[in-house]
Amino acid sequence: MELCDQYLHELLRLNPSLNDTYNIKDISFDKLPNTYTKRYDNSDSKLIDKYTGLMEKKKNKNIYDKIFQFELDYMNESSSFPCDLLPLELYNIFSEYIQNVSGFGNYYFKDIQSYRNMMKRLQSFDSITQSIIDCLKEGIKKKITHPKLIIQALIKYFNDVIYQKLYIKNDIPSSIKNEYIKSVETDLIKNVNKLTIFLEETYLKKSRNTIGLYTIIGGTTYYRSELKYNTMESMTPGKVHKIGLKMLKKYSNQMNDIQKLFKFKGSTFDFQKNINNNEKIWYQSKKDILQDLHKFNGEYQKIINKNFKDNKVKPYDIKDISNVEISKGAHYIPETKHKKGTFYLDFSKDLNKYELFVLGLHELVPGHHYESMIQMKQDLPDYIKHSIYSGFSEGWGLYCESLYKSNNKYIKFYQCMYMIHRILRCIVETGIHIYKWDYDKSFNYMKKNIGVSDEMIHDEIMRYVSIPGQSVSYVIGYLEIMKLKKKYMKEGKNIKEFHEYILNTHRPLDLL
Question: With a threshold of 0.90, does the pTM exceed it?
Answer without folding.
Answer: yes
